[in-house]
Batch of 2 targets.
Target 1
Amino acid sequence: QKEVEQDPGPLSVPEGAIVSLNCTYSNSAFQYFMWYRQYSRKGPELLMYTYSSGNKEDGRFTAQVDKSSKYISLFIRDSQPSDSATYLCAMNNHRAGGFKTIFGAGTRLFVKA
Amino acid sequence: DAGITQSPRHKVTETGTPVTLRCHQTENHRYMYWYRQDPGHGLRLIHYSYGVKDTDKGEVSDGYSVSRSKTEDFLLTLESATSSQTSVYFCAISESFLSSYNSPLHFGNGTRLTVT
């Protein structure tokens, strides 16, 4: 079983829809939770981060962590065609350092105009 | 793109040949990483470096070696390429040991390697 599970999609939604992207994980030691966005033929870029449990909002994006369920989510409100990309969740144990970051396989999102 | 250049961007090679991929950064970050990205597996760490001449293995290091003779350059070598090493390879850098909001991983745009 993988440490981090993420539905690969693809997920196709109309412009303006609310998008929910999710990951589950098995290692209860994970403390930092991140979402990276990756456009086609590009490297991933950090989109959101959350430490431990709770919500974090940044514009149209909200990251949510439920450590009791080992479940994290990224919500995109008023989705735009420019949001079409692959979204990767990532997480690590703070004490273990950056090279212990575990990535999900990524969910491909298409937002139709 | 956080000053990271990967070369070449595309490479086609034959089984059994050696291949070297280069990552060059202009950010003077201490930590550098090589990942491979494959469908269904996401990003997996091959090797990383925490300083000049200081490197260590990641989770999928078999068949790969690395070298870092200067802060700005991190080389990944496939000594004898195999078809299972067909992948997209990403270099990443980070400023500190703790990869989080204050020191996220910054990625290059990848090298697409095909081994025939």
Target 2
Amino acid sequence: QKEVEQDPGPLSVPEGAIVSLNCTYSNSAFQYFMWYRQYSRKGPELLMYTYSSGNKEDGRFTAQVDKSSKYISLFIRDSQPSDSATYLCAMSRGGFSGTASKLTFGTGTRLQVTL
Amino acid sequence: DAGITQSPRYKITETGRQVTLMCHQTWSHSYMFWYRQDLGHGLRLIYYSAAADITDKGEVPDGYVVSRSKTENFPLTLESATRSQTSVYFCASKGLGGIPEASGNYEQYFGPGTRLTVT
């Protein structure tokens, strides 16, 4: 079983829809939770970052972390065609050591927002 | 230009050949990472480096060699390429950890990737 599980999709939604992307994880030591966005043939770029549990909002994007359920979510409101990309969740134990700096990624969910 | 660059962007090689993928960053970041991305597996860590002359294995290190003689460079070598090493390779860098709530201390910045095909 993988440490981080993510539905690969593809997920197709109409423009303006609310999108929900999710990951589950098994390692309770994870404290830092990130969402990366990857456009086709590009490198991933950080979209949202959350430390420990709770919600974080940035414009149309909201990240939620539920450590008790080992479940994280990314919500996209008023989705746009430009949101079409692969969304990867990533997690880290944190700290200053090299091992703690490593990220464990989900497989990514491909999102297509149609006109 | 500032940032993280990879070369070559595309490479086709034959089984058994040695191939070196280059990664260069201009931020003087301490940490550098090599990942491979394959369908169904996502990003998997090959090797990482905490500083010059300090490297360590990741999840899938077999068949790969790294070195880091300078902070800004982190080359990845496939000593004898195999078809199973056909993949997209990403290099990333990160600064030192610090205040937990500051995402900049944990964000990894990725290069544009190298698409490698082994025939």
